Write a sequence for this structure.
């Protein structure tokens, strides 16, 4: 049995999974904080729904432009742990700069910096987890996704409570502290992981393999001809359109239409994230056993139904229940789509493939808030929620055209059997 096959079949410690997932939680902590602050910022600056949507559009457009270059940097440089720490700091610091903003255009500059900084995290983190745990891709990537859900679940509660005592400008300054602490923790702890894995090609801080820029660019161009990767990425973009539109305007709806306090808005957002927290490992595990396509198609369909139900519920108590159900099905498919994209590309281009997926997602995310805002200004928020239901159902149609191949994690026995065959 060759060494690589033995390593793939051997059990690994989950310490690096928990560390990377915790770091992911902090990147989402800042995003969740900003969604909660948007209604307050919008009121102070006198912004329309369209302008509020445009803020998030600019942030995600910056991410769309920088995600693919970020993935290329990860594949060419390696040193994924250091890149993750850099990304974490870069995401948090621009939010602190928002405390100095007093007009719409200064705010757009800050969110642009956030969009650029966030592009390094996923191309570094997701391939690291996927290839260190090849037989459990869906599960470990779901833990990574759970980290994001935890950050998005806790942040609204903590920040909502802080807003009872401090202004939003003070809160964004206080909020930079956990990101700095986590970035330092990643830098310190990664040294131990790298030493423990120094004989492993998947060491987190291993350098990128050297090969010509011309060859690398040729291989990157081949990714655009990869039908499975492109379709999965575009489908992910529609899912992200739904998520970003919902996260941007659900707090606005709760604050403006239902007149909820910031703390009550935070509780509702936390409910959605807690439901997503429960759904993520379920979706990841089932996709390892049943295949990615089955889990994605059922989750997308049910998400669309739940959003339509949420809009129909209006101001009734059922609205809050639908929020939790939307969170469950919306987040169940996220790690599955990410694992599917990694499987669809060569290992040496894993970071670039994730960068491509997140770049295409960011294009969708940049469209959703501005379009939602224009629909809400022209009609009302309820009509815009129905638009979100349509985007997620549209994504489902694309999934049917993704080529079927080995989409599920093989069992340990199957890995060992294949290793013996290759030996």
């Amino acid at each position: 049995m060759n060494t690589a096959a033995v390593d793939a079949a051997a059990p690994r410690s989950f310490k690096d999974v928990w560390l990377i997932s915790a770091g992911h939680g902090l990147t989402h902590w800042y995003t969740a904080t900003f969604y909660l602050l948007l209604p307050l910022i919008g009121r102070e600056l006198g912004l329309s729904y369209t302008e509020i949507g445009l803020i998030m559009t600019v942030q995600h457009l910056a991410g769309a432009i920088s995600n693919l270059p970020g993935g290329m940097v990860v594949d060419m440089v390696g040193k994924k742990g250091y890149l993750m720490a850099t990304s974490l700091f870069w995401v948090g610091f621009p939010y602190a700069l928002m405390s100095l903003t007093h007009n719409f255009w200064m705010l757009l500059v800050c969110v642009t910096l956030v969009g650029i900084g966030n592009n390094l995290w996923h191309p570094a983190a997701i391939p690291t987890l996927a290839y260190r745990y090849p037989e459990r891709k869906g599960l470990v990537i779901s833990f990574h996704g759970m980290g994001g859900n935890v950050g998005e679940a806790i942040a609204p509660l903590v920040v909502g409570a802080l807003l009872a005592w401090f202004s939003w400008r003070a809160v964004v300054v206080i909020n930079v502290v956990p990101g700095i602490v986590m970035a330092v923790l990643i830098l310190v702890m990664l040294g131990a992981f790298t030493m423990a894995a120094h004989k492993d090609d998947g060491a987190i801080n291993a350098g990128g393999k050297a090969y010509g820029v011309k060859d690398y660019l040729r291989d990157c161009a081949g990714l655009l001809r990869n039908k499975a990767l492109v379709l999965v990425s575009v489908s992910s973009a529609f899912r992200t359109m739904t998520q970003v539109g919902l996260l941007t305007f659900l707090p606005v709806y709760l604050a403006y239409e239902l007149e909820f306090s910031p703390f009550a808005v935070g509780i509702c957002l936390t409910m959605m994230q807690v439901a997503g927290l429960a759904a993520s490992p379920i979706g990841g595990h089932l996709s390892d056993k049943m295949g990615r396509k089955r889990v994605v198609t059922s989750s997308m369909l049910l998400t669309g139904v739940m959003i339509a139900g949420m809009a129909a519920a209006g101001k009734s108590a059922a609205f809050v229940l639908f929020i939790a159900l939307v969170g469950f099905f919306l987040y169940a498919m996220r790690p599955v789509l990410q694992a599917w994209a990694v499987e669809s590309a060569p290992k040496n281009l894993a970071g670039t493939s994730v960068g491509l997926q997140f770049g295409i997602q960011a294009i969708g995310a940049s469209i959703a808030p501005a379009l939602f805002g224009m629909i809400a200004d022209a009609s009302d928020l309820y009509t815009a929620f129905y638009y979100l239901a349509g985007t997620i159902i549209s994504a489902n149609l694309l999934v049917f055209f993704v080529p079927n191949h080995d989409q599920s994690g093989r069992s340990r026995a199957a890995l060992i059997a294949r290793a013996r065959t290759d030996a």
User: Anything to note?
Assistant: The chain has a mean pLDDT of 75.
